[in-house]
Write a structure and sequence with these properties.
The chain is α+β, with helices and mostly antiparallel strands. It is built from 17 helices and 31 strands. The strands form ten sheets. The protein has a six-stranded antiparallel sheet with strand order 1-2-3-4-6-5.
């Protein structure tokens, strides 16, 4: 497969890993001259039409994700019965490898890594993409400390997790991170990823996985039924608050977990705020992001390290464990031959010494010519090389490093100071600028000011002190409306990012409605219609109004206040007015027609309460007892026409 060319563009250079469904290679994009990762679907899945369809559909969906904490997907294709995906190449290592090397991570490393990973997961969730296989293997840590989540929806589908763990060993890498609902056959959702992120956080804090066992089934069932040992009981250095974040993320019932990856991240930040959480980045290999080709230098350094490692191991081998040729006594003939060889060697050496002495006596060694080293600091590297050549010197070792003040490819310093005398053809070591160290501005819009400070500090950027504020109908209070420079812009480290923060909706003046003598629900509806809120409720005994009737309002009707103002009220708690009975007597007209008689009451409970309505024969005498409270009026209607009003006390 090495050397194979896809799409007449991507060439495979080296195998870097393999998984249950795909093999991963490092490749080169010949068009853009950049390193890429090429993932090729295994042949046994290439004939599974449903798997391939999902593989391509999900890869296409992930290709639309553009976020600093997600590995970018550049291309998806099919060639010679091989399905492949071309992705961003990340210089660094997986979180799994980092944990194996370090053990339990420091609090600063843990918070930095999990918050960046949750940023990427939240971004994908907002766009309808569920990862379904969050694990430390799928979280990459770049040399510059950037954390990137990979294999969104590609490495394994829902059925692979929930249906095949009992028959396939290829799921072993994921079963340690699987959510209980996946084990039980339910489809994956956002909270499935949150559970798996909780497992990853547990692994970083303790250096071990929460559940383990002899078989995939036994491990999977522990996610469903097993008791989780809190991280702070495994590692006493873990803050209890952070331990509880893990416990909530790993609740077996999805409804009890965090509602979103962003909420989980906010909790991580909240419980660690004020603790010793200086974020540490992985050791960086300088010049990894240089535009020049460092392959030769990296390989040379690797060979040197390998030789040193071999020498160290040799020094550590106990004397009795070193291997030697078996000792055999030398025969008499062997001794005689060895003696002759020694004599010949001595004669030859003496002759060689005599010849060298004669030659050196006849040859005169020319004197060494020294030249003055010119000043090349501040010059472009090409100009410096030419100036050195003009005085018969050459460029020695070149070290490249970032510099915020000196332009790219200009000489920062020279190993031999200008004015010194050195022999001709001597190499002058130079330090050459790579230009300023650039970082990508993250997306801050929609996040809180505190989140913005965290995201910027993790990228060595600063939040501007001059923060402007504006009203917004769409962005909640204290969340960011605008930023400059915009997200995705590459800027120098320690650059300042300015933000504009929302003040929420601008309040408009409204007139307070009259809600006295209304029920609480009626009063609340009237206030809501005006953009106001029902405030505090004080209850008071009343003989005039039944329980639940608003007796008075703190702000009088028609008074003008700001929108969203809370209106406090006093509410009756009873016992209310005395109940009374009145007898209504009415003779229906004898006109050979049916008529409808209605009775409505106005009293302290309200106006227009219909207590009787019925159709009657002509000439009928109607007598009806009606109940009212305290005082008011009884209104009689014939065919919806008011025919009599009786005041009652």
């Amino acid at each position: 497969m090495i050397g194979k060319l896809f799409n007449n563009r991507y060439i495979i250079e080296e195998k870097i890993g393999s998984g249950g469904t795909a093999i991963v290679y490092r490749g080169l994009d010949n068009m853009l001259k950049r390193k890429v990762t090429i993932k090729i679907l295994r042949e046994e899945y290439a004939s599974d039409e449903e798997f391939v369809r999902r593989f391509r559909r999900e890869a296409t969906a992930v290709a639309n994700l553009s976020h600093g904490n997600i590995v970018s997907v550049y291309d998806v294709g099919f060639e010679e019965n091989l399905h492949y995906i071309v992705m961003e190449f990340v210089e660094g290592e997986s979180l799994k490898a980092y944990i194996k090397r370090q053990g339990a991570l420091s609090l600063g490393d843990t918070v930095n890594i999990i918050c960046q990973a949750l940023d990427g997961i939240e971004y994908a969730h907002e766009r309808g993409v569920i990862h379904r296989d969050i694990k430390s293997h799928n979280i990459l840590i770049a040399r510059d400390g950037r954390v990137k989540v990979t294999d969104f929806g590609i490495a394994v589908g829902t059925n692979d997790v929930t249906m095949t763990y009992n028959t396939s060993s290829r799921i072993m890498g994921s079963v340690h991170y699987i959510a209980p609902e996946q084990v039980q056959g339910a489809s994956a959702a956002e909270k499935t990823d949150i559970y798996s992120a909780g497992v990853v956080l547990y692994e970083m804090l303790t250096g071990q996985l929460p559940f383990d066992g002899d078989t995939p089934i036994s491990i999977a069932m522990q996610h469903v039924q097993g008791e989780l040992l809190p991280p702070h009981q495994v590692n006493s250095q873990v803050p209890v608050g952070l331990s509880y974040v893990v416990m909530r993320a790993m609740r077996k019932t999805p409804e009890f977990r965090y509602s979103s990856a962003r909420d989980m991240k906010n909790s991580v930040v909240a419980v660690t705020e004020g603790l010793n959480t200086v974020f540490q980045q992985l050791p960086k290999e300088e010049n990894l992001h240089s535009t020049r080709d460092l392959t030769g230098e990296v390989q040379k350094a690797q060979r040197q390290l390998a030789r040193e490692d071999i020498r160290k191991k040799e020094r550590q081998i106990p004397y009795e464990e070193q291997e030697y040729d078996e000792y055999r006594p030398m025969s008499a003939a062997g001794k005689w031959v060895r003696g002759i060889l020694i004599v010949l060697a001595v004669v030859l050496l003496a002759g060689l010494i005599w010849m060298v002495a004669r030659i050196m006596g006849d040859i005169k060694v020319p004197p060494t010519i020294e030249v003055e080293v010119p000043k090349v600091e501040g010059m472009f590297l090409v100009e410096a090389a030419q100036m050195l050549a003009d005085v018969k010197l050459k460029v020695g070792h070149v070290e490249h490093k970032n510099d915020n003040d000196i332009e790219e490819n200009r000489v920062i310093s020279q190993g031999t100071p200008a004015g010194n005398k050195v022999p001709e053809l001597r190499g002058i070591d130079l330090v050459v600028s790579l230009g300023p160290s650039m970082v990508e501005v993250p997306k801050l819009i929609g996040y809180s000011r505190r989140d913005a400070e965290f995201m910027l500090s993790s990228r060595n950027l600063l939040l501007g002190e001059d923060i402007t504020e504006e009203y917004s109908d769409d962005i909640p209070v204290d969340d960011i409306i605008r930023q400059f420079p915009p997200s995705g812009t590459m800027v120098k480290q320690n650059e300042t990012v300015q933000i504009t923060v929302s003040l929420g909706k601008k309040a408009r003046p409204v007139a307070v409605p009259n809600i006295e003598k209304s029920t609480l629900s009626e009063g609340e509806s009237k206030l809501k219609a005006k953009g106001l809120r029902l405030g505090n409720q004080t209850y008071k005994a009343s003989d005039e109004y039944v329980s639940g009737i608003i007796l008075s309002q703190a702000i009088a009707a028609e008074e003008v206040v700001d929108e969203d103002t809370a209106i406090d009220v006093t509410v009756s708690e009873g016992p209310g007015p005395v109940q009374k009975v009145f007898t209504v007597t009415y003779l229906i007209p004898d006109d050979e027609r049916y008529h409808t008689l209605s009775i409505k009451i106005d009293d302290v409970k309200g106006s227009g309460q219909e207590v009787y309505s019925s159709e009657h024969l002509p000439g009928t005498m109607v007598s009806e007892n009606v109940t009212y409270y305290s005082r008011g009026a009884i209104n009689v209607y014939l065919d919806e026409i008011l025919v009599h009003t009786e005041k009652v006390e």
